[in-house]
Amino acid sequence: MAMSKRHIYCIIESGKEENFPGEGIGEKDSEIYSVPAGDIAAVVGESMPGLPLTMRKEELVGKLATHQAVVEQVMKKHTVLPVKFGTTARDNDEVASNLLRAADQFRGLFDYIRGKIEEDVVAFWSKKALEDLLREKPEIETAKDGVSARGKKAPLEDVVRVGQMIAVALAQRKKECARDIIDCLKQCSLDMRRNRIARDDMILNAAFLLREGDQKLFDNKVVELNDRFEDRIDFRCVGPLPPYSFSTVEMSRFSFEEIDAARKRLGLGMSAEPAAIKEAHLKLIPKLHPDGGQSDPDAAREFDEASKAFQLLSRYCGTGESSFNREAVEKEILIKVLEIDNEAGDRD
After folding, report:
1. Looking at 54-63, 70-79, 153-162, 186-195, which range is the least confident one?
2. How far apart are the C-alpha atoms of 148 and 171, rounded to whole Å?
């Protein structure tokens, strides 16, 4: 029977092998342990065939919760860099090899999040908030009462107008309240990320990065906000958490076919350094830029392809000269911190 792949949960600062308690996403009783490489290690366990592409949504959600539970268990002993759910490696040797290649990047991330935790705060309108808003906006309450008095005979345009008036007023109030909450909590946090607003009654969904020693101060600020808004806003807080919103790492391999196509698009040889990649791209811009009076209808597409080739090769080469042969490309891995999926228009 073939050995399953290794599922990677997180990266830790440790140069020794270690076992961790708890259940992983693999078969029952499968171990969760660290694979060290120098002074850092990856916490891994048995993976599952097809994860996560062939799973039902319910099963996938359960596995994600298990993944996060492992990371939070490891956090009790170590500073952790969470790894994107579903990241795997063929075996422990590949895990260690990936760690060594990206060791400097991981150390830089550890410097950023060491001694820090995440607190997630979600704020919702209460029913009383809408009642207060109607009292504060007599023109809305008057229009609403007029529609209610006519019942089913009320013109549709009047019903729509009242709904729009309420929506505009709530949106403005939501923006003001969210700003007040953020301004208060920023006083005792280091960074903040807004997450997606999932419901109409949700005012704010945000993650805050703070020093471990500031958690009590942060919690007191949330209590202060709760008292200030009384029963108009309901607060829900989750933490302390690993810094998921600030340091979740994605590890992916480069495609030789994509790198080779990009190299050819820019007219490069079998190796190059960043300066040569930039120079090759700059030479193509006057020839392909769609605003340069080009008569070729494909110029815009080719300009876009050249730009994408430049971006890909720049990520691949980093700061030094790199080879574009298949063996070299397939050994490289791309490490990046995932961006949070902010809802459009949710920023101040």
Report:
1. 153-162
2. 23
**Alpha-carbon separation of residue 246 from 1, 29, 143, 215, 240 (angstroms):** 39, 31, 46, 17, 14
Among the four given CATH numbers 1.10.287.110, 2.70.70.10, 3.30.450.40, 3.40.50.2300, the one describing domain 255-331 = 1.10.287.110
How, if at all, do strands 202-211 and 116-125 pair?
antiparallel
Mean pLDDT of 65-91: 89
Q: Is residue 344's pLDDT more than 60?
A: no
Distance of alpha carbon 175 from alpha carbon 153, whole angstroms:
35
The answer to whether 326 touches 263, Cβ cutoff 8 Å, is no
SS3 206: strand
- CA distances for 88 relative to 74, 94, 146, 210, angstroms: 18, 10, 61, 30
> What tokens does 2 get?
């073939």
Angle between helix 299-317 and 256-265 (nearest 10): 120
How large is the average pLDDT for residues 88-104?
84
- Which phi and psi (to 5°) does residue 142 adopt? -65, -45
Burial call 136-170: b when 16+ CB within 10 Å, e when fewer: ebeebbebbeebeeeeeeeeeeeeeebeebbeebb
| Nearby residues of 307 by Cβ (< 8 Å), 6 or more positions away | 281
Residues 6+ apart with CB under 8 A from 301: none
pTM (predicted TM-score):
0.68
